[in-house]
Design a protein that fits this description.
This protein is an alpha+beta fold. The chain is built from twelve helices and seven strands. It is flat and about 55 Å long.
Length: about 290
């Protein structure tokens, strides 16, 4: 394999030197021409603009297949790393590096293969690069009025198609939600219900994915899931001890219990209108 790293660096140094010479040679009182900036991938000083349809397709594909591990905003999830800081994403151009990882998976890290086509990979790439751009420009980002939904439609969705009442109550856990949280926080809790893992609270255990492992001997081990792939599963048992077991197909028997399954399912069905309507309704719960 031929490596071009050093020649590229040499070329960059030479170009930088030329730039400095041009600046040094600029006539007094005149501003030297700015050097060209890279446009395209996540490392660019300028970021490529994507059309709304591409970003929406990328978001849907990402949410349905990647959000559980990497988080709804790609900043890290239950077992997957922060993709907005990933060197693979930052050096990617149009999905050629992201595609290699997606199509081949990373079995050693618990990531399966995905049979996406070129267009799907390009859409996911666009979604991630736009996330990198948003993170880089967060200092200039302003949250505008997000109260654009219909509260009555949100209430109907809450009590009906959303199935929210199976777990939540407006007189119980959601009582006075509109007074406790700003609209942007309410909306974030709808689309990213597992956010805030770095700030542990008493409710974290209630939200954790638990697992029951039944060994061939008949021994049953229960605990909070740490990691699972095709080859191993690890957990923290009820005594706080770390346990790990090798896997061979369906042996040992593994049963997952995720209290957030309903939210995960909704991530695939939400429309923008549903999210805004729910936000508007929750804001009325004073």
């Amino acid at each position: 394999m031929i490596h071009f790293v050093k020649p590229c660096r040499v070329a960059l140094v030479l170009l930088s030197g030329i730039g400095f010479q041009m600046m040094a040679q600029a006539p007094p009182g005149q501003t030297p021409p700015a050097p060209a900036r890279h446009v395209g991938g996540g490392l660019g000083s300028e970021y490529k603009a994507y059309d709304a349809a591409t970003l929406e397709r990328g978001k849907k594909t990402y949410t349905a297949n990647c959000a559980f591990c990497h988080g709804g905003n790609a900043k890290g999830g239950e077992s997957g790393p922060d993709l907005l800081r990933s060197l693979t994403v930052l050096h990617d151009e149009n999905g050629e590096m992201i595609g290699k990882v997606v199509l081949n998976g990373r079995p050693d890290k618990g990531m399966p293969k995905f049979g996406f086509g070129p267009e799907q990979i390009a859409d996911i790439s666009a979604f991630l690069h736009d996330g990198v751009r948003a993170a880089a420009e967060r200092g200039t980002y302003k949250i505008l009025d997000i109260m654009v939904g219909d509260a009555k439609a949100g209430q109907a969705y809450f009590n009906g198609a959303g199935g929210c009442t199976s777990c939540h109550s407006v007189t119980g856990d959601l009582a006075h939600a509109g007074s406790k949280y700003e609209p942007v926080d309410l909306q974030q809790k709808i689309v990213m219900p597992r956010e805030g893992r770095g700030r542990r609270t008493a409710s974290d255990k209630a939200m954790a994915v638990t697992v029951t492992v039944t060994l061939p001997s008949g021994e049953v081990v229960n605990g909070i899931l740490n990691r699972m792939d095709d080859f191993a599963i690890s957990l923290v048992d009820q005594n706080g001890d770390y346990r790990s077991f090798s896997r061979d197909g369906d042996v040992p028997k593994v049963e997952l219990h995720d209290p957030m399954n309903a939210h995960t399912a909704l991530l695939k069905r939400y429309t923008d209108a549903d999210i805004h309507n729910l936000t508007a309704y929750l804001e009325t719960l004073k």
